[in-house]
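[Discussion] Sanity-checking designs against the backbone

I'm trying to build intuition for which residues belong where. Below is a structure token string of 454 positions. I'd appreciate it if someone posts a full sequence so I can compare it with mine line by line.
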């Protein structure tokens, strides 16, 4: 019996709760299945019954040896994967534009860190890391990395060639960890290839981002005999709450039911997407980026304003205010509309109609995408060393030559200009000032001040 079924039965039973949570299931809606680890509903941290069964179903679904349900998002998955696969002082190669949870994992585990630097496309979007870039970083490193952490697909949907990268990592005996937060929907239909699950040693995926599942739900998917499963369990005990939400776990259980039973959702979804992409022949100024399905997830609709007089941010504003369409993100020269198989035909039609109308009203132009990452980092300390040193806060303008203890990131595209342990250069100060002037969101500064090692 699945967890979902067990919770349904529990809800109908006459059991009185002299236990947590304090709402006592006396409120309606999701409160009715919000439980603690009582008899019959299993325990996420030591599953033996319905949760163990659902984790097995999840493993079968993704074709992996072992699956862990997560209720703290891919954030918990990345932290746990890094903690479990690596030991203090191990050398790891990560993508420079990794999510902060990857950086935090490397910091907490006191790792030595090197980088893989993927290229940007003409809209300033990070492409996926290529096998060649990975090989270059391995060759350039003084030590052989124990593990590599890459992101595939990227936020905007660029895939890595996971098959080739996994083969290479196996041949070099390097553990491959893939942050597949944006790709939980991959591998279930021929139009959505390159799923990492089952190919990489460890895969982290956010069920909530692209499948019908509640926010915070995710999965850790393991197919390796190079790392002991007990290590993952121990890591999850550290990073995941001791009171995992049954509402979230119920949602995972329900999502597994959907994925097992309703593959025809994908056919409708692909039909809708194919219909939508026909807009490309009708747009004069806007452009819907369309790499082959082999290179880019067709479900992430990237609408470029590069060759128009409208910025991505302005396009998103018009879509929101005039057409009541909210998009996932917008940047200098593009908007990302995220889709899933839960989107309706009507939704796609609304977006199409809106874009066609907007396209008619705009003219040719050229949106400049600033080059934000022309910086060559000079690493003076490891991340963790900078994070455990005494620090002082000084004005960014006076920080040239100091060692940063802060990560300074630009959003979009969401990658650090300065990483803890790196020397702050005039060039990085200039890039940050430029970004601020152009209206890019900069994280890591406190009113123009930066924390540096004292
Ligand atoms: C590439 C990537 N990895 C990991 C995460 C963290 O995922 P979650 O929000 O499920 O914790 C995100 C979040 O946006 C992400 O973009």
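Best answer:
Here's mine. Compare freely.
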């Amino acid at each position: 019996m699945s967890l979902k079924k067990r919770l349904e039965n529990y809800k109908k039973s006459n059991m009185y709760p002299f236990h947590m949570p304090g709402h006592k299931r006396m409120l309606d809606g999701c409160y009715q299945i919000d439980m603690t680890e009582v008899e019959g509903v299993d325990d996420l941290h030591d599953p033996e019954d319905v949760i163990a069964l659902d984790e097995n179903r999840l493993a079968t679904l993704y074709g992996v040896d072992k699956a862990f349900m997560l209720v703290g998002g891919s954030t918990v998955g990345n932290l746990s994967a890094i903690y479990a696969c690596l030991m203090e002082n191990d050398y790891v190669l990560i993508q420079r534009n990794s999510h902060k949870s990857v950086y935090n994992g490397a910091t907490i585990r006191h790792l030595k860190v090197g980088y893989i630097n993927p290229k940007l496309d003409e809209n300033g979007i990070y492409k996926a890391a290529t096998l060649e870039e990975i090989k270059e970083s391995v060759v350039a490193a003084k030590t052989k990395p124990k593990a590599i952490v890459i992101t595939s697909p990227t936020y905007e949907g660029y895939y890595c060639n996971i098959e080739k990268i996994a083969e290479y990592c196996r041949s070099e005996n390097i553990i491959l960890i893939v942050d597949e937060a944006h790709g939980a929907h991959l591998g279930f239909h021929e139009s959505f290839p390159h799923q990492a699950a089952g190919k990489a040693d460890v895969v982290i995926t956010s069920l909530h981002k692209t499948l019908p599942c509640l926010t915070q739900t995710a999965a850790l998917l393991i197919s390796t005999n190079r790392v002991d499963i007990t290590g993952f369990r121990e890591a999850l005990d550290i990073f995941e709450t001791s009171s995992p939400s049954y509402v979230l776990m119920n949602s995972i259980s329900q999502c597994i039911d959907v994925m097992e039973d309703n593959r025809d959702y994908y056919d409708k979804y692909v039909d809708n997407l194919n219909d939508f992409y026909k807009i490309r022949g009708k747009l004069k100024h806007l452009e819907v980026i369309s790499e082959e399905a082999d290179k880019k997830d067709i479900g992430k609709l990237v609408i470029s304003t590069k060759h128009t007089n409208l910025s991505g941010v302005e396009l998103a504003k018009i879509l929101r205010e005039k057409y009541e369409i909210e998009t996932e993100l917008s940047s200098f020269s593009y908007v990302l509309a995220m889709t899933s198989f839960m989107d309706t035909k009507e939704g796609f039609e609304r977006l199409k109609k809106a874009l066609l109308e907007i396209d008619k009203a705009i003219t040719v132009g050229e949106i400049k995408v600033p080059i934000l990452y022309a910086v060559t980092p000079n690493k003076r300390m490891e991340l963790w060393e900078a994070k455990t040193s005494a620090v002082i806060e000084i004005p960014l303008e006076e920080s040239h030559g100091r060692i940063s203890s802060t990560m300074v990131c630009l959003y979009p595209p969401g990658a650090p200009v300065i990483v803890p342990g790196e020397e702050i250069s005039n060039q990085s100060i200039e890039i940050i000032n430029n970004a601020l002037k152009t209206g890019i969101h900069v994280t890591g500064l406190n009113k123009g001040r930066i924390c540096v090692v004292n």
